[in-house]
Write a structure and sequence with these properties.
alpha/beta, Glucose Oxidase, domain 1, 9-stranded mixed beta sheet, 48% helix, 22% strand, elongated
Length: 268
């Protein structure tokens, strides 16, 4: 009789046991998921701290992120369009990132042999990982730089140059492999026609405002300016967007459906 009661007791407890087990598994799963989330958040915070501490690490990371993802990240975070227009083209396929070293030239006919000295001084004082960003007043048919300036930038470890105007000595710039974005090419010199108007100042380059120290990143899709104060935040989001997009390619090939991939990853 005691055995029957014991058996009956076990049967009565079975539903509760299942609920307790299910509840325990649910709690464990939530704890595991929460731990994973905490790990990811912690890792992201560690990355952010490392990038904030080390400017060279920040630039190195930007060199491995798609410029399209950087552009998307800026729009998502600040609703700004910080990409240069289709007019800005590379002399040859290149990828680079660096800190903006800004220079402005104003149009002025002159006989002053020192009128452009300031732009040369800016190069000679530039640091490694600089991107030479030049704004030239009405500069579509004037070369803002050529082979000599490109050689100096290359020797000093500049990442590249972005010229809101034209460029010359293109064969030599290709030979030394120094990446330049410009709105055109021309044989015309700025000497005698322009005067240095300042360096490490705020300039407008192809319609985009660039402050000294902003990050300029470029690849075959174009060039983007990242405000320095938002550089870490933009980078972390761009890395996430890159990961999603690169994960979608094999999924699209497997499922033969872009709609399914976009629905799963929320990225287009």
């Amino acid at each position: 009789m005691g055995q029957e009661r014991a058996g009956l007791g076990k049967d009565l407890l079975k539903p509760f046991a299942k609920k307790w087990l299910a509840g325990g598994l649910f709690v464990a799963a939530c704890a595991f998921a929460g731990t994973g989330l905490l790990i990811r958040v912690s890792a992201a915070q560690e990355d952010a701290d490392a990038y904030a501490r080390d400017p060279s690490a920040l630039i190195a990371a930007y060199k491995h992120v798609e410029v399209a993802s950087v552009s998307d990240a800026i729009e998502q975070l600040s609703h700004q369009k910080m990409y240069l227009s289709h007019r800005m083209q590379p002399l040859f396929p290149a990828r680079f990132a660096g800190y903006a070293l800004t220079v402005r030239l104003k149009k002025e006919e002159n006989d002053d042999s020192h009128a452009l000295d300031g732009m040369l001084t800016a190069i000679d004082q530039g640091d490694k990982d600089s991107v030479y960003v030049m704004s030239i007043e009405d500069g579509a048919d004037i070369a803002g730089m050529g082979g000599l300036m490109g050689t100096a930038m290359e020797a000093r470890g500049f990442s590249g140059a972005v010229i809101d105007g034209s460029v010359r000595d293109t064969a030599y710039l290709r030979k030394i492999g120094f990446p330049v974005y410009a709105t055109g090419t021309t044989p015309a010199t700025a000497v005698g026609h322009y005067r240095f108007a300042g360096s490490q100042i705020t300039v407008v380059c192809d319609g985009v405002t660039v402050h000294s120290g902003d990050i300029v990143t470029a690849d075959n899709d174009g060039a983007v300016v990242v405000p320095r104060e938002k550089a870490v935040q933009v980078l972390l989001l761009a890395q996430q967007l890159d990961f999603k997009e690169h994960s979608m390619y094999p999924l699209i090939e497997k499922m033969k459906s872009i709609e399914a991939a976009v629905k799963q990853f929320g990225r287009l």
